[in-house]
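dude i think i finally got it to work??
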Amino acid sequence: MPLEPPQADDLPALQADLGQCTVSGLSSGAFMAVQLQMAHASMFVGAGIVAGGPYRCVESFRGAAPVAADAFVQNALFVCMNPLTPETAPDVPRLLALARQAAADGLIDPLHHLARQRLYIFTGSEDRVVHPVVVQRTRAFYQGLGVRDDQILFIDDVPAGHALLTTNLEDNLLALNQPPYLNRWPQPDAEPQSWAILDHLLGRQKRPPKGGAPLRGKLLRFDQRPYFGHASRASMAAYGYAYVPQSALDIAAQGKACRVHVALHGCKQGASHVDFVNGRADRGNNPPYGLRYVNTTGYNEIADRNNLVVLYPQVEGRDDGQTQNPEGCWDWWGYSSTDPDAPDFHSQRAIQIAAIHGMLQRLGSH
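look at this
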């Protein structure tokens, strides 16, 4: 008899405090972190943005093409990643106006929730994928919404390439700009960038013991498909991951609440990522990245000591007549939308944002 495929875990109902969530991401994950935080600002107290642009960045210059979807692609490439000149970087006043209108229309939470947010914003000075000037505009965007400077930690003086920074010897040198977009600190006593992010968003976190220790929690693989309705345009993978510390399970049993951090991978970093050749998934040539963003970036180790659940939603590449996302990026330019003249990728109605929100609702349930 054929073997049954392994069953996925269910996301647990942990009574998590959904008014104390945080989110972080790299690259497309950073753009999505901004969108998720803005859409559901009442749920979040902070965001870690590594090489990401401001909210609705691709709408900086609508006149780039007659059809909105085409204009947004042009903006993504030449405004939000590598502006032709600093003057053509994201248009912060326009994006602030769009955010205020979205809030007025009820598409995102009221903007007064941003007043409590803490922001970790990082751009490597050697980043050649998302230019530092774009990330500078991200800081300016939040300042324009009234987030105080003492709540924003902005770092632009580290000679890093386009990557989340780790302490793993297997990862790239600090200044490189290449997959898997995980670069290592050169200092032997450095700590993972994920720890610095959580320190700023949540206060100084308890450290694992020197030399490491076995994790006491469990990494769950769960079925994401119910959260995005099995729609292929979501470009989300069948399975996502969550690290659940034993302490979170223990206090849930006592009727107490843990907190949740959403960690969003960047392009080509999803657990099921494969390269596409001529529009077809080349499954005989899979990059060996797998679960590195989940298992080697340091989030689980720090979460294990701090009663923090880490949710790792997953995107996968698609390249067909409906969805063009071969590099497995989060949608920050509109590929998952159904209307090319009015792409909706940035509000509570957006399919990916709604899916992650549903996951958080499950973790916060009784």
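The chain has one domain: 21-363.
im so relieved honestly
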